[in-house]
Design goal:
Blueprint lengths: L2 H9 L5 H11 L15 H11 L4 H22 L4
Helix pairs in contact: 1-2, 2-4, 3-4
Length: 83
Amino acid sequence: MKFYTFMVRNHIDDTGPIGKLARDMKEDKEHFPMNGVMKFDGWHRIMRDYLEGCGAEDKYLDAFEEAWKEYEQCERKRLKLKL
């Protein structure tokens, strides 16, 4: 699953910063970087750089970091990869 899909499926209705980030990502679907399945290395930096380039506030960058950890754990578990 792509990080974008993970966020939209799991956090779109959250009321905190992760939910706001998910809604912003959905609104920016045409431009937000999309990783492929099992593509973690490098994509974290690409997405973080994109958010920073868009002027994301620190609380949304922190939300991204939290969500990325959750995403990577879920995907590695789902795909049975080592953490």
